[in-house]
Design goal:
With 561 residues, the protein is an alpha/beta fold. The chain has 3 domains: 156 residues, Restriction Endonuclease; 131 residues; 265 residues, no CATH class. The protein has 23 helices and 9 strands. Strand 2 and strand 3 form a beta hairpin. Helix 10 runs antiparallel to helix 11. The radius of gyration is 29 Å and the shape is elongated. The chain starts with a helix and ends with a helix.
Length: 561
């Protein structure tokens, strides 16, 4: 966290940014500001004056002169912002003419404040100046650079006051509401949108854009701290998913992939997302061994199903993220961790029978993420058993209860109305389905012949009056995938799907459709090696998983044959 704060401080301007932050920091430390910067008013070297107890317990008058970035030899004597003239003005003019009578007897501490550091070529000059001009019990000097400010901010000011005023209101509201179980992070998402897409960053320098990205990374880390305090990591996990998608979307829209500094900042934010997901997994992991350990004391089956499938998707996405990191690093420990996460998900499914009964058609997104992770680790036998149980439970729910079937609407009101109040009939909520067709395509990809036969039977029985369909993306995908559910904005839908009796015939149909589509390699997430972004978008925006994740398995299977 200190390094992230320090990086952000190093990019802050002295006017309108660091000089706004410092009074808030001092106030939180119990040091009361008595004057703040004023535009057009001569300050005689003093940007902020404050009174309070120092680290040695003595009450002092602090006089801050603020400079931007690192301080080198040229910054000492030359230019409008030269340091020595500012300090000389404080010593010779401000102390003798501008201190209020009630503070005149206090020892004075003149502080050079900067978001950077004093360079090596200037350290001796600064030390000599301090030694030659300090007066015991009257005047002393100090330097508050990036390292010290980062420590003080982490200890005293890890809240919205660290940010510029234009984003402070929305971030403050996010922090206030982050402990609420049903908070949807709208204010944080709006803040992200303001920073990345509403402001005209296209004309900004790389350095200015870097500062925006550092601000976002810092905000995520502050959210993590507050989420820990609220004992609720889910909001910051959702925020980190949206953040990494939006930032890549910004880089893509502005053609910035050639800017190495910005890509490096993206990698830092990706690490923040990874760390948050890792912490979320670690918190949930002990409950996976307990039978129904993740049911969270819910009072009804449909809520259990909704909660559990959401967690299934979250954990499977994390496992896929770990695996993708292993592909990049080629480190055995990372691959081993991905395998461990996969085994824990198998235990989760075995210990939670609710995961055999999806109540939303969109649960196929979470199921697909899990199947993809399991297939990567050669758990096809478990996939086969789990899928059969899923189909069997869906079949029984319809025939045995006439409810608890996966409805096409994602609205919680429709889910409750259909399953509990009988105000909605099956025909209203079972008009379409992507669940059955995607499961059928997984069967083709993995060679699950018996499960395909079961799907074929269900399509002619339980699903006979349902429009079976599959969404296929097109070359407009990247206009939307990083900011919303792309399935509502682009692509095409194959419907109604009529399954042939033989799995081989359906495989041939899938091949024909694939041959007519454009090359997926054109997407930036494919070119730049961050294909997991498409998986995050599927889970976060509830977009059906892209067929490109299971179609290669068909090609691989054919090559083996």
């Amino acid at each position: 966290m200190k390094l992230i704060i320090k990086d952000y401080l190093s990019m802050m301007k002295e006017s309108g940014e660091l000089d706004e932050l410092l009074p808030n920091l001092l106030l939180s430390m119990g040091i009361k500001p008595v004057s703040k910067p004023q535009v057009g008013v001569r300050q005689f070297g003093v940007d902020v004056a404050s009174v309070g107890k120092d680290e040695d317990g003595v009450n002092k008058l602090f006089l801050f002169t603020i400079k931007q970035g690192n301080i080198g030899r040229r910054d000492w004597d030359q230019g409008k912002q030269a340091i020595r003239p500012s300090i000389e003005e404080i010593k010779d003019v401000y102390i003798s003419t501008h201190i209020e009578p009630k503070y005149q007897k206090l020892p004075v501490k003149i502080v050079l404040c900067s978001g950077g550091e004093i360079k090596q070529d200037t350290q001796m000059t600064w030390s000599n100046y301090v030694t030659n001009n300090s007066i015991e019990n009257e005047v002393e000097y100090d330097f508050w650079g990036g390292d010290k400010l980062a420590l003080l901010i982490e200890e005293h000011l890890l809240d919205e006051n660290i940010f510029p005023s234009e984003v402070r209101r929305k971030f403050r509201k996010t922090l206030i509401l982050i402990g609420e179980p049903d908070y949807n992070m709208y204010d944080y998402y709006s803040m992200l949108n303001d920073i990345l897409f509403l402001q005209n960053l296209k004309k900004d320098s790389v350095k200015k854009i870097q500062k925006k990205l550092m601000l976002i990374n810092l905000s995520l880390n502050i959210l993590l701290t507050w989420s820990r305090d609220a004992n609720n990591l889910k909001p910051v996990l959702l925020a980190s998913e949206r953040t990494i998608l939006n930032i890549w979307g910004f880089l893509h829209e502005n053609d910035l992939f050639s800017k190495k500094l910005l890509i490096n900042d993206f990698v830092k934010i990706k690490k923040t997302y990874y760390d948050i997901a890792e912490e979320y997994f670690a918190k949930i992991n002990p409950n996976l061994d307990v039978k129904n350990g993740l049911n969270l004391n819910s009072n009804h089956f449909i809520l259990e199903s909704k909660i559990l499938f959401e967690h299934l998707g979250i954990l499977s996405l994390f496992g896929l993220l770990v695996f993708s990191e292993g592909v990049l690093s080629q480190e055995k420990n990372t691959f081993d961790h991905a395998k461990y996460v996969t085994q824990r998900i198998i235990i989760l499914i075995k210990n939670h029978k609710t995961l055999l009964n999806p109540v939303l058609d969109s649960h196929i997104i979470d199921i697909s993420l899990t199947i993809l992770l399991l297939s990567i680790h050669d758990e096809n036998e478990f996939i086969n058993e789990w899928m059969y149980d899923l189909l069997q439970h869906i079949d029984f729910a319809d025939k045995g209860f006439g409810k608890y079937i996966p409805i096409s609407s994602d609205a919680i009101e429709d889910l409750i109305a259909f399953n509990m109040s009988d105000t909605k009939v099956k025909e209203e909520v079972f008009q379409t389905s992507i669940l059955l067709p995607i499961l059928a395509q997984w069967c083709v990809s993995l060679g699950l012949i018996q499960n395909y036969k079961y799907i074929y039977e269900l399509s002619n029985d339980m699903y006979k009056n349902t429009t079976l369909q599959i969404w296929y993306h097109d070359n407009d995908l990247e206009k939307y995938i990083y900011r919303t559910n792309a399935a509502y904005k682009c692509g095409l839908v194959e419907a109604p799907i009529v399954f042939p009796e033989q799995i081989k015939e359906y495989a041939e149909q899938m091949d024909k459709i694939k041959d007519k589509r454009f090359l997926d390699e054109n997407f930036s997430f494919m070119k730049e090696g961050v294909i997991f972004l498409a998986l995050i978008s599927s889970r976060h925006f509830r977009m059906p998983m892209l067929p490109l994740f299971w179609e290669p398995l068909i090609v691989e299977k054919k090559n083996k044959n």
